[in-house]
Amino acid sequence: MRAIVVRKFAATPEVAEMPVPEPGPRAVRVQLEAAGVNPYDQKMADGILDGVLPHDFPMILGIDGAGIISSVGPEVSRFAVGDRVVGKFLTPPAGHGSFAEYSVLPEDATLVRIPDAIPSIAAAALPTAGGTAQDLVDAAKIEPDHTVLIVGATGGVGSFLVQLANTAGAHVIATARGEAADRMTRLGAAETVDYSAGPLRAQLAAAYPDGIDILFDLVSSPEALADLTGLVHDGGIVYSTVGAVDEDRLRARDMRGGNLQSSGRAPELARLLGRVADGDVVVPIDATIPLTEGLSVIGATGARGKTVLTI
Ligand SMILES: NC(=O)c1ccc[n+]([C@@H]2O[C@H](COP(=O)([O-])OP(=O)(O)OC[C@H]3O[C@@H](n4cnc5c(N)ncnc54)[C@H](OP(=O)(O)O)[C@@H]3O)[C@@H](O)[C@H]2O)c1
């Protein structure tokens, strides 16, 4: 089967021929139809989980994937051949990801059936980015009329987060450069702010003299986030998805939040699929690209929503 692999940490990804995996006890094999691309794919290729999880090489990249169960191992009780499923293809040992024609997952991993109304391409875009956005909104406990600034709003997580925060009743301020602003408005942003036009703090401080309530930051360095936190009033909420929050400094100002690690388990994924099936959340797909042409999008910057590989 064809797959996108790296042969060692920090190697350049390549398309390679790999053996079709066989499911062992309590595991299923998925014939993948689509795989969502995330910044974490490049981080894994670079070795972010080296020493955290065992890895097999060549390491097949890709976490998010959707497809049809083509084989089940002994003692599988939750799934059957033919089920259309979406999940996170990251269980130990790492290296058996979703950028492949087939992958095997334990049946108790993050793996759920896809409602008929949702195409596999849309489902594959959900687990990491949509799940993280849902986790952020749940953790912050947004209340109607909260003012929420989303930094990095135009990418995968942000394009879900703008929608979910708006649905929760917040006044959403989204960062966006140039033509991306219109898309943010359509997804539910009340205001957009162009971070390339000058420091965000300077652009927003005058409009919010009492401070904003919640900052969700998906991109900033610790130094940049410390500066932006000055926009949030004492007692407010700040979350980073890139580990940039200094939690001691937050507590000193009686603030909530911290560095979020998305749990991304099956019940949350099923809830998100339900919201998409009900039409409450739009899956923001920017581009679909065949697997064999996917090397150029791994680790790419400047995302406008989600990129999905078709398999
Ligand atoms: N902790 C967790 O559990 C968790 C879960 C999911 C994701 N993450 C991490 O969260 C980050 C975001 O993920 P993602 O999937 O949304 O990434 P993404 O799809 O690549 O989106 C990032 C977006 O940020 C914009 N951006 C870049 N620099 C910016 C700046 N200085 N100010 C405002 N916007 C900026 C980019 O567009 P422009 O450059 O064109 O402006 C892009 O649209 C990644 O580092 C990812 O690994 C963590």
From TrEMBL:
Residues 10-309 form the Enoyl reductase (ER) domain. It comes from the Bacteria. Coiled coil: none annotated. Signal peptide: none annotated. This is NADP-dependent oxidoreductase.
